# Entry
Amino acid sequence: MIDDCLRRRITFGVVALREGNESEDNVVLEEVGTLAKIACIEPSLSGGFLLMVTGATRFGVKELHRDKSYLQATVDFIGEDDELLKPYLLEKVLATFENYIQMPLPELPKHPELLSYLIAATLEVRLSTQQKLLECTTSTQRIIDELHIMNFEEHLAEQEILQTRTDPKQFSAN
# Structure
């Protein structure tokens, strides 16, 4: 597949597996995936490739095709909204994100779509949560969901700190 993409200078689709693996006939894929553009490629010692890709357009999977050694699909591209974030929401998400990654931020994109995908790529969450973020119908909804995730993780971290400070097992009797 990578050889085909490089030779033909095309993107490839990335879709999470819900059940099975891609070599099985009964594989179940998630319904939404994203195109991936190869940004950097290096051969690995195992004979494969180390890839760095950039996500592009989202798509919905309509039909799978199994006529090659890798899965292919007919897809419908999913447009992204161009709505503007309300200033208070932009301010809130930028402050929360800076606190989440615990370092000063460089200039971040103000465009909701780009900002939402940057944050999504940074969050350390399960694949199922990443999939839910990908499936959000608007960038604003994705950003609101990301805010909830970051706030929840901050709350958990605070609880862990408090528990550590008050847990008598943390102190030695000596």
Q: What stands out?
A: Residues 139-166 form the longest helix (28 residues). The chain has two domains: 2-78, 87-165. The mean pLDDT is 86.
